[in-house]
Design brief:
With 276 residues, this protein is an alpha+beta fold. It has 7 helices and 17 strands. The chain is elongated, with a radius of gyration of 29 Å. Belongs to the pseudouridine synthase RsuA family.
Amino acid sequence: MKKTNENSTNINKFISSTGICSRREAEKFILDGKVTINGKPAQLGNRIFEGDIVKVNGQSLKAKPKTLYIAYNKPVGIVCTTDSKERNNIVNAIGHPERLFPIGRLDKPSQGLIFLTNDGDIVNKILRAGNNHEKEYVVTVDKPITPEFIQKMSNGIPILGTTTKKCLVEMVNKTTFKIILTQGLNRQIRRMCEYLNYEVTKLKRTRIMNVHLERLAEGAWRELTDDEMSLINEMTAASSKTEEASKNVQKKTPPKKKFIPKNTDKRFQPKRKKRR
C-alpha cells in the first residue's frame, strides 16, 4: 500500500489514542526526545503508518483496537459466556479475531438476536433496566393461547419477588405470541409463562432497540451499521451507566472509634486496691 496521509495518523494523536497521555503531553515527550519511530527519534508532525513501531521511553505502543459492535443470531445450544471452560461459549461460536463479550444474554435453549462488543461503556448503558430499552421476542408455547393469557402477561406477572412491568403482548397464531419487554429479569418470559401454566417450546429474540434480526442467518453475525450505532448512541445518551442500586441512599457506616493506645508504663497505671 502506498503511504499517504489518508492512511496515516499524526504522531501526537497516535500516542494519545493509546491512552497513556494527552496530545499535549505527547508533544512534550517528542520534544524531550523520548519518542522513536522505527528506532529513529520522532519529530513533531511525523505521521504513523500501519506497521510502524512507536516507542515512548523505550516501551512499544499499540493503538487501541477498533471499537466493534456485532449483531449475532444465536442458535439454540450456544451459551452466552466468555468462559473457555464452556465448550459451546458464544465467543468460540462466533470466532471473531477480536476479543468480544456479549451485551446481556439469551438462555441456552433460546435463540435470536444478541449484541457483542469490546466497548464496556455501551454495555452498561444498554443493560440497565431503568433505561427502558425495548427487546422484542416471538414465543411459542405448548398449548392454545387465550385472551386471558394475553391480558395477564401484558399487565404483569409476579415472579422473582417482584411483578413484571406492563408490556405489549400480541397473539401471532394459536400457540405463538409476540412480546416486547423493557426488563431483563432472569428467564423472565419462561417464568411468566410457567406462572400461567404454559411451557415455552421456542423463544426467539427478533429485535433489540432499533436493530432487527431480519434476514441474518442462524449462527451468522454482522457489524452494526453507522446509522444503527448513531441511533443507539442517541437512545442511550441519557442512560445511566451505573447499577440502579447505586441510586439508593447508601447506608451510613458508623464512625470509627478512636484508637486510644493502652498505657503500658506501670508508673502511670492506676493502683489497684488490695483486697482485705
